[in-house]
Write a structure and sequence with these properties.
The chain is α/β, with parallel strands linked by helices and 347 residues long. It is 46% helix and 15% strand. The chain contains 13 helices and 14 strands. The chain has helices spanning 2-48, 90-99, 118-124, 140-145, 161-167, 181-196, 199-220, 248-252, 274-280, 294-301, 310-313, 322-327, 332-345, and strands spanning 53-55, 61-63, 70-72, 76-78, 85-87, 104-107, 130-131, 150-153, 171-173, 226-232, 235-239, 270-271, 284-289, 317-321. It starts with a helix and ends with a helix.
Length: 347
């Protein structure tokens, strides 16, 4: 009898301890879940605390070269972080992609013929993303149908600014001026990082790009001078380091000495004959191939006249991809690619 009582008491004690342990485990699990919920709420609150956010355009106004029409861009106040993005500048699209920003619902695909780097074309030229037209001729109906929270534009779309603001007031001009090209790229990256909470990644990308810029400056300092030209349909355009020159940054920011200055120029360059190139006789000749077909460009450019230049004789003619140099400038990874093109050729 005593033995039975002992066994019963032991069993009851065991059950009590087990119940106590289960209760403690349940309490611990509940506390853990509550802590996780609180942390999630804190993170969400931190993200939302940045909004409303007022974003200024990177340039206050833009002037059309042909018509002289000026467009003034307004500050934009975002009530919350945008989730549906229409991006009409290829360079800025590249930057958003590099930062890991998601939610792009509209891009200027131009029926799949837009000049976008292949890796981005595979990702953004799809049926799931609205085709907003070409860079200069927008499909406003497609933009509106995409129901964007924000629209990012640059100079090519400046003329559509008022119409785009009727779709959403959140139209942000992300093109900077040409006075400090590298700083403009950083400002673009910072703007995107601020809106989408990607500051750490932005610092990483900017640091890597600055290393490339420094390497190119060092390389450029070893040459007497250079000339930037653009090849398009059997014609050359020349660019110096002037205020309105599209590629002034190659001299002013990347470190090459201009082989010629004071030429009449614009964003599309000055008509520059092959004889003019020979007269300037640059040590380095940079050819932006707007048609993105190096074989065709090379066959036309390296004629009997150009073969007399120092650049040809020393093997210093560098062909540059028009897709990145002419259509997708300003993106943090496309700019890195541009610098790599030069560094790889001028070994």
């Amino acid at each position: 009898m005593k033995k039975w009582k002992y066994i019963t008491a032991t069993a009851l004690l065991t059950l009590a301890l087990a119940a106590c342990g289960a209760e403690e485990e349940s309490t611990t699990d509940t506390a853990t879940e509550d802590t996780a919920t609180e942390q999630s709420a804190d993170t969400s609150a931190t993200e939302n605390s940045a909004f409303p956010m007022t974003v200024a355009p990177l340039t206050a106004e833009s002037e059309d070269e042909e018509s002289g029409t000026k467009t003034v861009f307004e500050d934009v106040t975002l009530e919350q972080q945008p989730e549906r993005l229409v991006v009409l500048d290829y360079g800025f699209l590249d930057t958003l992609d590099a930062l890991g920003v998601e939610g792009v619902v509209g891009v200027a695909q131009n029926g799949g013929k837009g000049f976008l780097p292949e890796n981005l074309k595979e990702k953004y030229f799809t049926s799931d993303i609205a085709d907003a037209g070409s860079l200069k001729e927008l499909n406003l109906e497609a933009v509106a149908a995409a129901e964007p929270d924000v629209i990012f534009i640059s100079g090519r779309q400046a003329g559509y600014y008022e119409e785009l603001t009727e779709i959403t007031p959140n139209v942000i001009y992300i093109a900077s001026d040409n006075e400090d090209y590298v700083q403009g790229i950083y400002e673009s990256v910072d703007l995107a990082a601020k809106i989408f909470g990607k500051e750490d990644k932005a610092e990483e990308l900017k640091a890597a790009f600055q290393e490339k810029v420094d390497a190119l400056k060092e390389k450029a300092s070893g040459y007497e001078n250079a000339l930037v030209t653009m090849y398009n349909e059997k014609k050359l355009s020349g660019f110096d380091n002037g205020e309105k020159s599209r590629f002034a940054y190659v001299y002013n920011d990347f470190g090459f000495n201009p082989a010629v200055t004071g030429i009449e120029t614009s964003s599309h360059g000055s008509d520059f004959s092959f004889e003019s190139v020979l007269k300037v006789d640059p040590e380095v000749l940079l050819v932006v191939d707007r048609g993105a077909n190096e074989e065709v460009a090379k066959a036309d450019v390296e004629n009997d006249i150009i073969k007399q230049t120092r650049a040809y004789k020393d093997g210093k003619i560098v062909y540059l991809d028009g897709t990145t140099w002419y259509f997708s400038s300003g993106g943090i990874t496309t700019e890195t690619s541009k610098i790599d093109e030069i560094l790889n050729e001028l070994k």
